[in-house]
Amino acid sequence: MKASLEHLCKSNISLAPFSTYAIGGEARFVAMPQTTEQLVELMENVKSSGLNPVFFGMGSNILFPDQPHPDTLFLSLREHIEIRYKSIDELYVSAGTPMAMLSLLGIQAGISDFGFTFLLPGTFGGGVYMNAKYFSNQINELLTLVYYIDVDHLERGIQSIDVADCKFAYKHSIFMEHNWFIIGADLKLKSPIVHEDRLLQFISQAHKTAFTASDLGQFADYYVKQLEILEQRGEANTEAMRAVINDRMGKHHFDYPSCGSVFKNNYNIGEPIGKLADRLNLRGTQRGQAMISPVHGNVIQNRGGAKAQDVIELIKLVQDAISGEFGFVPECELVIV
């Protein structure tokens, strides 16, 4: 590795703490840039060093390998947190900003745009990449312009693409079709910011107060506590966030390490994948220390010491079972490295 990269990388570090699955072997190199400038510096040196970059945020939708390739640089944007006030109805948000943090930002600003992001594990960049959806809301509904770097054409620098050209659909975007990684995006708010002073104060403290660890239990506890603090101040209507808590806690999303839903739903079938798995009595099926959740057929949990291969075996089992019974192979939402 070039000396110019060494100050931005950690060496020989376990990937398990970087994933909500708590799975992953020891990586030779992990980088966590805090600024766009550091990101650019990393990318200018990575390829000439013969390394293959793998980008991720909080590791909430990714399965790391048990034995990472030594020439892979695992590049997490979880420390790349930047929010800029552009106008009374427009913000810039960097890729590493936690999705759940946007909901708290909305409360402080007096707007309701971000209620659906509460308790969504992962970063904003990951949310844009997969067009994060919860209830009837999708992240693309808030975007105007997305900023990215083309890994195959680094000489082009930071580029931007209009939301209309991003091919956003159900858990899909143009970023899945190219070797691009997302830097951040401009958001057009549905209603003007009410409390500009509170918003600016929140932005000034964002990097210090963001929770970026991948432990799902700690993640949920932290953001629920932050919500309760705001409720005690009587600063906003938090009904939307309370609905999220009831839904996610009711489905036991944070009881064990997992990535949430493993498969995309097939809307041509008429039933979600979890329901199809239930009809095939797959809940509770276990391989090694990985288990299909006893309460949700589209969630695979790490019950303690699971390996990536355990999860992959369960994925194949579900795909084979659904293919045999219903005539299609469920598409993974989970990114398997």
Question: Could you characterize the architecture of this molecule?
Answer:
Cell wall formation. This protein is of the alpha+beta class and 337 residues long. Helices cover 30% and strands 21% of the residues. It contains 10 helices and 16 strands. The strands form 5 sheets. Strands 6-7-12-10-11 form a 5-stranded antiparallel beta sheet. A 4-stranded mixed beta sheet has the order 1-2-5-3, with no helix packed on it. Strand 8 and strand 9 form a beta hairpin. Helix 3 runs antiparallel to helix 5 and helix 3 runs parallel beside helix 7. The two termini are 22 Å apart. The mean pLDDT is 92.
What are the salient characteristics of this protein?
single chain; 337 residues; alpha+beta; 5-stranded antiparallel sheet; 4-stranded mixed sheet; 10 helices; 16 strands; 21% strand; globular; flavoprotein; cell cycle
